[in-house]
Automatic annotation (TrEMBL), chain A:
The lineage of its organism: Bacteria, Bacillati, Bacillota, Clostridia, Eubacteriales. Keywords: Oxidoreductase. GO terms for cellular component: membrane. It comes from the Bacteria. This is Formylmethanofuran dehydrogenase subunit B.
UniProtKB/TrEMBL annotation, chain B:
It holds the Pfam family GXGXG. InterPro entries: Formylmethanofuran_DH_suC, Glu_synth_asu_C, Glu_synth_asu_C_sf. SUPFAM superfamilies: Alpha subunit of glutamate synthase, C-terminal domain. This is Formylmethanofuran dehydrogenase, subunit C. One of its GO terms (molecular function) is transition metal ion binding. It comes from the Bacteria. GO terms for biological process: methanogenesis. It comes from Desulfosporosinus lacus DSM 15449. Residues 80-213 form the Glutamate synthase alpha subunit C-terminal domain.
Length: 283, 275
């Protein structure tokens, strides 16, 4: 709701002085949601049909013939006629933004859905100004992507085992490595694997040594081998937070906590590891 | 005078080992001791082939032949970049097996994992079992995958088989996963069994031959049903290697669809018609 109010739907701008009245909001989702209630057009689609839907929109925008589709044929559970209307709407607008979330990238087709959407946006720019903005699921997911990208060139699933960064989602991504039982220890920072990973991955994590940096009590703190309480970022520790549209925001420390920040805890661990590698006695 | 090098797995490792040093190119002309000291990587530690394999070497007729005995599913990158000779894996193989291969022959008697023959440039890979995802595909961020050679799979293959392939042949007798030949640039892909969602999506050129009618995207247009001339040659060539494509043999007819209309429509999907 805050996103609708501040950025996407209700905000007033130079060319949208009336705010919401100057905008057309189309929601494509598998179920009705508070956002879909505020939409001008809501298209309830069947799950897993994202690639086909974007492909049909690309064909409509390119003005190609669509084999086997008539006005009342269903594409992703919605009448083809409605996709025709949406394609016309997209071509006719002055400034369009597609906001997509994990519903697109974590359903069947995965990264190909996002690639297809990017192709759609590229092609729409021949007609009008169009953008795609990825809506990440949690706070500052973008931050880890940004930092990994400027440090290694890759945004996620980076492996350093050979001394240089290598990137290969599916081979070096968390769920796949845990599913294949390729890790024999884990350092977990700023996430709750019990709440987010598949059960089989969590079960394997439980069987290996885990070190967990976390400010709150949650489902993972109950079983992690070592839990290091840290100050909550943005409250007990300062830092940089990346907003979903890639804007870095400086966060100041508000209150003092008796525990170290993530940075201090990691620096401490690193110094200790280096000391042990040099063969010195532990402090 | 050639060499026959036997590598026998002592015990299957618990963690994956990167063994791109195991290629006929690298093992040729080295004695057993030198082969044992060649590096492999486990985690961040550099180890030796001798830590995992018993090595035996004998002189033989013909070219260099390397035979690996044991389940090598935890060994990644075996045969990566090999350019000649014969490499036989008498069991399963791990990720990236035969990736960047330039020539020679690689035989896998068990199952192969993901990225089999990725970015392959030449040579032949045969798999007696199933293969994983991304067979002959392009690594993430690259626009062209396999650019030559042949991959023959007796079992099934996973998703994105032959995606972004530039040249060469991939033949799978069994089923394939989603996005077969995604963004195919050129080359030939054969899948004898069922295929997953949207085969040939965004293909530019190239040929995809399917044994069963798939649900095609609406950007593929039906052209005709015919007997393509090249099919006889392809069938005979692979039959010569002991790989028989379809029960209809050389006289099969196919439904031809052209697409993807979004990328010029110069690609073709041929669907076998049972007689």
């Amino acid at each position: 709701m805050r996103h609708l109010k501040r950025y996407s739907a209700l905000a007033k701008g130079l060319y949208t002085p009336e705010g919401r009245k100057d905008r057309k909001v189309v929601v494509i989702d598998v179920r009705p949601s508070p956002t879909s209630k505020n939409a001008d057009i809501f298209l309830q689609v069947t799950p897993g049909a994202d690639f086909e839907i974007v492909h049909v929109l690309r064909l409509l925008i390119a003005g190609k013939r669509l084999e086997g589709l008539e006005e009342e044929s269903l594409v992703g559970g919605v009448a083809f006629r409605q996709w025709q209307e949406l394609a016309e709407l997209m071509k006719a607008c002055r400034y369009g933004v597609v906001m997509f979330g994990i519903g697109l990238t974590q359903s069947r087709g995965k990264d190909l859905n996002a690639e297809e959407l990017n192709s759609l946006i590229i092609e729409l720019n021949a007609f009008t100004r169009f953008y795609a903005v990825a809506m990440r699921g949690h706070g500052n997911v973008n931050g880890s992507n940004q930092v990994l990208a400027w440090q290694t060139g890759y945004p996620l699933a980076v492996n350093f085992q050979r001394g240089y960064p290598r990137f290969n989602p599916g081979e070096f991504s968390v769920v796949d490595m845990l599913r294949r039982k390729e890790a024999d220890a884990a350092l977990i920072i700023a996430t709750d694997p019990s709440a987010h990973l598949p059960q089989s991955a969590v079960n394997y994590l439980k069987s290996i040594p885990t070190i967990y940096l976390e400010p709150h009590e949650n489902a993972t703190t109950t079983w992690a081998n070592v839990v290091i309480p840290v100050a909550p970022a943005g409250i007990g520790a300062g830092g940089t937070f990346y907003r979903m549209d890639n804007i870095p925001l400086q966060l100041k420390k508000l209150v003092d906590f008796a525990v170290p920040s993530d940075l201090e805890a990691l620096q401490g661990i690193k110094e200790e590891v280096l000391r042990l590698k040099r063969g010195e006695a532990a402090c | 005078m050639g060499e026959l090098i036997h590598l026998t797995l002592k015990a299957e490792p618990a963690l994956p080992v990167e063994a791109e040093s195991i290629t006929p190119d690298n093992l040729r002309g080295k004695n057993e001791e030198k082969i044992k000291n060649l590096p492999v990587w486990c985690g961040n530690a550099q180890e030796k082939i001798g830590d995992y394999f018993e090595v035996e070497k004998e002189q033989s007729a013909g070219e260099t032949r390397v035979v690996l005995t044991g389940e090598c599913a935890q060994f990644k990158r075996i045969g990566q970049g090999m350019s000649f000779g014969e490499l036989v894996i008498e069991g399963a193989a791990g990720f990236h097996t035969g990736a960047l291969m330039r020539g020679g022959s690689l035989q896998i008697k068990g199952d192969a994992a993901d990225w089999l023959g990725a970015h392959m440039e030449g040579g032949r890979i045969t798999v007696a079992g199933n293969a994983g995802h991304f067979v002959g595909a392009a690594y993430r961020g690259k626009t062209q995958g396999m650019s030559g050679g042949m991959i023959l799979i007796e079992g099934n293959a996973g998703q994105m088989t032959g995606s972004r392939m530039r040249r060469g042949l991939i033949a799978v007798k069994g089923n394939c996963g989603d996005a077969l030949g995604f963004k195919l640039l050129a080359g030939t892909i054969f899948a004898g069994g069922r295929t997953g969602r949207h085969p040939g999506a965004n293909m530019l050129r190239g040929t995809i031959i399917l044994g069963e009618q798939p649900e095609l995207l609406s950007s593929f247009y039906y052209n005709c049903t015919y007997q393509p001339v090249f099919w006889n040659m392809l069938y005979a060539e692979l039959a010569g290697c002991g790989f028989f494509l379809l029960p209809g043999g050389q006289d099969a007819s196919f439904k031809r669809y052209s697409g993807d209309a979004l990328n010029g429509g110069k690609g073709e999907i041929l669907v076998w018609q049972s007689t």
